[in-house]
Amino acid sequence: MRRLQVRVGHVVGGLLVLAAAVALVQSSTSGRAGALPPGGPGSTQAASSTLTPVTAQSPAAPQPPAQPLAPGTGQTGQGGSVSVNLGGSLGKPSTSITIIIGLTLLAVAPSLLILLTSFTRIIIVLSLTRQALGLQNVPPNQVLAGLALFLTLFVMGPVISQVNAQAVQPYLSGKITASQAYSAAEAPIKTWMLKQTQADDLALFDKANPKPPSPQALPMSAVVPAFALSEVRTAFIIGFVIFIPFLVIDLVVSSTLMSLGMMMLPPSLVSLPFKLLLFVMVNGWALVVQSLITSFHT
């Protein structure tokens, strides 16, 4: 019974939906008929026959472009020109250019410090002095490097002041160009390096270049390696002289221990206090620093 009622309800609902669809179709058909113009289709054809034909017109001729405005004026000018400055003119460098140059110098500062200054000779001599004393890590490497850095600034002080006065400040004030500043900075540094470079080291790299009229005319590519070799050689000579008194102490202590039959006792352990005592009594660090400063030709 219940199933029959459900089926009857479905049939009734379907009939209602069908009736609504038929009513919707009729209403749309009547709306279209009302939208037709009076007179029916014939009137539409008549109206279309009365329309006037559209004639095609030729396109308008293109207009010539206007003359560009003269710079600094509101009127059009003739013969205007555009100039592009690619450098080489005098002018104060911008802040961005100065920052880029500063960052570049900071990036290559370690190489410049080692190859163009007295840092190489000083750090080698200080390291050899520590080894001559028989000390491995005292003073620490940081102390030796810091002392060598400040001694380098002391030795290179006149050259740095000359570079600053002749190249850096004129360039920052816009009096000279970048190429002129480089040439002005290169001259005092090369002069100082040539004073410290030995003739045979300079001749070693001079063979690859045409014979210049003077060593000052050599390029930096030949002066820098010759200067580095001379610095290492001079540092080893100074280190050899420093090693001699400590070597004598080691020999005396070793022979004394051998004569006493103390062969199991390390001679370096016994000689270390005597080395330190001798080095302190003669104010060894001051003597080493003084010999280093006076070894540079100014």
Structure description:
Residues 33-51, 74-80 and 82-88 have low confidence and may be disordered. The chain has helices at residues 2-35, 40-49, 95-107, 109-115, 119-132, 141-155, 157-172, 178-196, 199-206, 220-259, 267-281, 284-294. The chain has a domain at 95-294. The termini are far apart. The protein has 298 residues and is mainly alpha-helical. The longest helix is centred in the C-terminal third of the chain and has 40 residues, at 220-259. The chain is elongated and about 135 Å long.
Topology of helices and strands:
Elements: H1 2-35, H2 40-49, H3 95-107, H4 109-115, H5 119-132, H6 141-155, H7 157-172, H8 178-196, H9 199-206, H10 220-259, H11 267-281, H12 284-294
Write a short abstract of this structure.
The protein has 298 residues and is an all-alpha fold. The protein has twelve helices and no strands. The longest helix has 40 residues.
Keywords:
298 residues; 68% helix
Give the overall shape, derived from the CA principal axes: elongated
Strand count, sense and barrel status of the largest sheet are: none
Enumerate how many helices there are, as a single number: 12
Class from secondary-structure proportions? mainly alpha
Spans of 5+ residues with little confidence (pLDDT < 50)? 33-51, 74-80, 82-88
Mean pLDDT: 77
In N-to-C order, the SSE pattern is HHHHHHHHHHHH
Q: In whole angstroms, how far apart are the ends?
A: 126 Å
The percent range for strand residues is under 5%
Give the helix level as a range of percent.
55-70%
* Number of strand elements: 0
Radius of gyration: 48 Å
